[in-house]
Amino acid sequence: MVDIIKRFCIAVALGLCIGILFLGTQTAKAEEKRDLLEVEDQTFIWPTVGEISDTFGTREGKHFGIDIAALEGTPVVSAANGVVSKSYVSDTYGEVVFIEHDNGFETVYAHLHDRFVSEGQAIEGGSQLGTVGNTGRSQGNHLHFEVHDGSWNIDKSEAIDPLFVLSEKDSDRYAAWSLDSAYENDTEDSEAVYVMSNLPGMGKAGDQERNVVGQPVKMVESGDTLWSISQLYDTSIEELMEWNGLSDESIIVGDLLIVDQ
Ligand SMILES: [Zn+2]
Question: What is the CA(65)–ligand 1 centre distance, in A?
């Protein structure tokens, strides 16, 4: 008899434990969801226009931002209103700008070619803070962009995936492109300009084509030839030339080439 009571007690205790565990996970899930919703309420302007060449959480979880490949000199804008918290040269980030936003977030813009803002300066969302470059620990021109739900710290523990909070509105997506940029007047690098201006979606904000992010484009790297790129993307030199309006086979490092249609 005592044995039966013992067993009964153990069963009840186990049941309680499982119940508590179950409730616990439900609550945790609800909280996660609420946090995500709060984050999603924040929308940021795209800091530049280009091809996403690397996403958040890659490199064994050590990539705490997204990379947006674009030509050197492409405008980089502040993702929201805020104050410049840092603007300096770092060994790893290169020419880098940090902005603290009114909502408590901090954003980071790294590997810049030029910086146009200094510490303590107030800046509006969509205002230019610099240009895309290849400074610091970087291979090829791109913007490394981080969003922190709180202040930046060395462990980057507050970093979130920028794609969660970047606005889907075209006016926010192409803010950097709608700035008066050097492209139209740039004669030194006319081939690159030609390719850039012919990319689908690379028109001014408000144009109908809108798919540059996620378009099958490749940035030309040193050592690339039209032949090697055609092999990589299972296409032909002729098609690449046609899609990109090239009159001969010469390509320039940093060019963005359409590689599929
Ligand atoms: Zn990066």
Answer: 6
The protein residues having their C-beta less than 5 angstroms from ligand 1 (an ion) are 67, 144
Q: How many whole angstroms from 141 Cα to the centroid of ligand 1?
A: 11
Centroid of ligand 1 to alpha carbon of 67 (angstroms): 5
Give residue 26 CA to ligand 1 midpoint distance, Å: 35
Distance (Å) from CA 176 to ligand 1 centroid: 19
**Domain tally, the chain:** 3
Kindly give the confidence (pLDDT) of every residue in the chain, 261 residues in length, as a single tens digit, with 9 standing for 90 and above: 667 667 765 666 666 656 555 555 555 544 444 454 455 456 899 999 999 999 999 999 999 999 999 999 999 999 999 999 999 999 999 999 999 998 899 999 999 999 999 999 999 999 999 999 999 999 999 999 999 999 999 999 999 999 999 998 888 888 887 775 444 434 344 333 333 443 433 433 333 333 344 446 777 777 888 888 888 888 899 988 888 888 888 887 767 777 777
144 and 231 together in one domain: no
Same-domain check for residues 192 and 78: no
CA 2 to ligand 1 centroid distance, Å: 66
Distance of CA 3 to the CA centre of its chain: 64
Instruction: Note down the domain range covering 228.
Output: 183-258
**C-alpha of residue 52 to centroid of ligand 1, in Å:** 10
Distance from residue 10's CA to the centre of ligand 1 (Å) = 54
Q: 89 and 112 in one domain? A: yes
